[in-house]
Amino acid sequence: MGLRELRQKRGLDIQTLADKAGMDRAQLSRYENGKKPLRNMTLGTALDLCDALRVANPRKLLEDTSPKENTDDSQV
């Protein structure tokens, strides 16, 4: 479950989560929309988001539920 899904599951809008995590709404939006890679997030930011989302494991933020591109070349 990715960042947006976690936020929606908690019933939070983007501004509320940004406020709870002490970050800018635009920055959070860039993470959610993939314009800024989650893997480049600082540990402090990840922990602040985890606290705001009530998530114990920061790795939950990195889970991606979007479909992966098929890279299987065996059917070429």
Automatic annotation (TrEMBL):
A UniProt-annotated Pfam family: HTH_31
HTH cro/C1-type domain boundaries: 3-61
Protein name: The helix-turn-helix motif
SMART domains, per database record: HTH_XRE
Record-level Gene Ontology MF annotations: DNA binding
Naturally occurring in which organism (per UniProt): Bifidobacterium parmae
SUPFAM superfamilies with a match to the protein in the record: lambda repressor-like DNA-binding domains (SSF47413)
